Amino acid sequence: MKLGNLDLPSDVCRSVGDVLARIGDKWSVLVIVLLKDGSKRFSELRREIGTVSQKMLTATLRGLERDGYVKRTVTPTIPPRVDYELTDLGRDVMVPLNAMANWALSRREQVEAARKAYDKRNKR
Amino acid sequence: MKLGNLDLPSDVCRSVGDVLARIGDKWSVLVIVLLKDGSKRFSELRREIGTVSQKMLTATLRGLERDGYVKRTVTPTIPPRVDYELTDLGRDVMVPLNAMANWALSRREQVEAARKAYDKRNKR
């Protein structure tokens, strides 16, 4: 299978797809962007994102930690304090992510117009 | 909220997140890549991806069509023939998508190692 300029076996494509699935996820992108300037607590992330549920934010952070983008530090105070920060890999992914985000930003009105036209065509 | 180098209101961030959610989706990426060199029929896409269910591929193509990346053409033969091809927007998204795919390709072993280590730490 061809991915970009590369000819790749399909297991490599799937593995690249798995990496993309995580960093292309809407909440993951927002979390990575929010952690860009330093560590944050769970409650800060939740407040700054605004529309995310506690359950969804927990799942997103766990996924990012599992894939190696985010480090979770627990300070054993009462109640325990939990901080999240980007790892080197997490900072590294900011580069292609920024390119993608800038593209998405410049094309978002085009995508929104396409959605509206599609929904109008397919309305019963 | 800050996205990349930009200071953005959170509704714009969400709208960018919506764009990213589609093009970051694993199956969407594979379909865009497969359509790069020309139009393909549903059955060809399904065969070339291999592991995707009919239902999932249908949903993916519908999402890509709705967002304006893919054009669907029905030829009224018996049975009808359905072809899919990239639009200008779909070809345009290949540029940041390639950058992201190359990053994912170069880091996939690191991500896989992080996953294994996480699963080992969190095994009961």
TrEMBL record, chains A, B:
<keyword id="KW-0238">DNA-binding</keyword>
<dbReference type="InterPro" id="IPR036388">
    <property type="entry name" value="WH-like_DNA-bd_sf"/>
</dbReference>
<dbReference type="Pfam" id="PF01638">
    <property type="entry name" value="HxlR"/>
</dbReference>
<keyword id="KW-0804">Transcription</keyword>
<feature type="domain" description="HTH hxlR-type">
    <location>
        <begin position="13"/>
        <end position="112"/>
    </location>
</feature>
<dbReference type="InterPro" id="IPR036390">
    <property type="entry name" value="WH_DNA-bd_sf"/>
</dbReference>
<dbReference type="InterPro" id="IPR002577">
    <property type="entry name" value="HTH_HxlR"/>
</dbReference>
<keyword id="KW-0805">Transcription regulation</keyword>
<protein>
    <submittedName>
        <fullName>Helix-turn-helix transcriptional regulator</fullName>
    </submittedName>
</protein>
